[in-house]
Amino acid sequence: MSQTKFSTHPAADKVYYIISGFILTFILIAVSYPLIYVLSASFSSGNAVSSGQVLLWPVDFSLEGYEAVFKNKDIVRAYGNTFLYTALGTLVNVTVVMTCAYALSRPGLKGRGGFMFLFTFTMFFSGGLIPFYILMKDLHLINTMWVMVLPGALSVYNMIIARTFIQSSIPGELIEATSIDGCSDARFFFSFVLPLSKAVIAVITLFSAVGHWNAYFNALMYLNDRTLYPLQIILREILIMNQVDVSMIMDPELQVAKAQAAAVLKYSLIVVATVPILCVYPFIQKYFVKGVMIGSLKG
Amino acid sequence: MDSDLAAADRQPENHPLRTEKWERFQSLKKYWDLYLIMLPGLAYFIIFKYVPMGGIVVAFQDFSAFAGIRGSEWVGLTHFKNMFTDSEFYTVFKNTLLISLYKLIWGFPGPIILALMLNEVRHMLYKRGVQTLVYLPHFLSWVIIGGILINVLSPATGIVNQFLGMLGLEPIFFLGSQEWFRTVLVVSDIWKEAGWGAIIYLAALASIDPQIYEAAVVDGAGKWKQLLHVTLPSLIGTIVILFVLRLGSVLDVGFEQIFVLYNPLVYNVADVIETYVYRTGITQGQFSFTTAVGLFKSVISLILVVLANKAARKLGQDSLW
């Protein structure tokens, strides 16, 4: 772009660039500082954190926070639970979303409009919290792992993304041609639709995986068995409600150290709980624009 | 379509009623596996979405968990009457509207400004870096962000209050102060979601024809004039549709965020419909009353969405349906 070369208002343009650069830098600092701070604090010693010495970089480098995290049985178990719920929940999500999207993408399906209305209507109207709670109770899902997996099995939004994708990227002629060769609809789904929809499957997998990883509302509502708690509930106990299980530290001489250890533990815990998201983040990022844009198209 | 034609070809008589029935049967026979494939999704919707909708009748009952929906006594509109005479409900409703309004006023322009700034960055690597960073908070849970906020805003050790201390100011207990709590909600919401929201505007900006800018430059327009006469007019469609749709969800103020951050000190200014329903419904067991409150919210939301969609259509924009 050689716009500036022609510009007749060099001074005004300069102001423009300075203001825009200034705002962007401010945003950059505002977003990154808390994240850097958490990371630095997690690698500092308890003493440095609780006395407020950590400003930008780790002070008095130590791994005691991480040690405390991995020694805490609740955290380790909850971590495992969350992995299980995420894997299972994502599998269910992707299966249900793709099958449903495929069926609804086929013009041959009678009553397509009716089904679509039935599905999209639930995006804008729901029974609400209490009727859902009563249902979970009646289905005996309370205090089972399934309450973390089943209730969110089909996101209408994801289904619309997938349906739009299938409709626009798999030509109708292909279906006709294969059906003349005797290929059934079910077989077409497995042999053509799934392989051709890799991009959208990736989007849905990653989005629902992140969703399950971060899910805590259902756990809050429907689980009260500690052994089933996912990570987010334990995080809430420790980070928000300040219930660090200090009874694990038996030595009375460590009374002061306890409070300090608790402070670092929180930061380390935030890092540990976020690492899986950071791991999939580069992969999701590739699909951001695609996902958001397809989703904004008409359903 | 062609299946219908094929069906009509094979159909010997052309009696209208028979044709229709026959066609439907043929289509069911031909596409039975499609219906089978859709079955899990359909079952999910019926069980997890439509059955709870039937559960709304609880709002008109005096629900008792022992008697169940069938055995509970019907009380008509009693709960709705109680709701409208309950002063706590008014506080909650007011908070919902206020917090939502603040988030709209302060939060809505955020992504637009961010997208405009990002669009000016010519250094691709820097741009990618900034984008990667500002999208990230969207993927962190509110529990995590709440944890960060509590530590960063802590009156004793938090970094924000340390800065205030350096400036010679008194420490502020942000999360326990009725004046500051809503500000924290709005700012943290912007921090988490502004980057993500910018994506759609960036896409709209990328689709502006560069020739328009070149023409503007030839006509002597500087950066400000370009922004005012080229960029903003090109964005206005996207802005209007997103604004209207946002109005449709004005009662959804974000349960998780408020639930994570609020505490009895700030219930007065922070309790919204969703948190109120959770607290009085689930933890205090007033099932019927809170179902009525939830229903009130759902109905208003539905009306708002329909109106918003109509408005978007009227403005000549893409609508939801």
From TrEMBL, chain A:
Gene3D superfamilies tied to this protein: MetI-like
Residue ranges occupied by any ABC transmembrane type-1 domain in the UniProt entry: 79-275
Transmembrane is among the record's keywords: yes
Membrane spanning residue stretches: 15-36, 83-104, 116-134, 146-166, 187-213, 264-284
Main localization of the protein described in the UniProt heading: membrane
Keywords in alphabetical order: Cell membrane, Membrane, Sugar transport, Transmembrane, Transmembrane helix, Transport
InterPro entries, sorted: MetI-like (IPR000515), MetI-like_sf (IPR035906)
Places the protein is found: Cell membrane
Family designation: Belongs to the binding-protein-dependent transport system permease family.
Protein name: Multiple sugar transport system permease protein/putative aldouronate transport system permease protein
Native source species: Paenibacillus silagei
TrEMBL record, chain B:
Keyword annotations from UniProtKB, A to Z: Cell membrane, Membrane, Transmembrane, Transmembrane helix, Transport
Compartments (UniProt record): Cell membrane
Domain of life (superkingdom): Bacteria
Domain ABC transmembrane type-1: 93-308
Main location: membrane
Entry keyword annotation includes Membrane: yes
The keyword Membrane appears for this protein: yes
Record-annotated membrane-spanning stretches: 31-51, 97-118, 139-160, 227-245, 287-308
SUPFAM superfamilies linked to this entry: MetI-like
Membrane topology reported for the UniProt record: Multi-pass membrane protein
Ranges in a coiled coil: none
Family: Belongs to the binding-protein-dependent transport system permease family.
Name listed for the protein in its UniProt record: Aldouronate transport system permease protein
Organism encoding this protein: Paenibacillus silagei
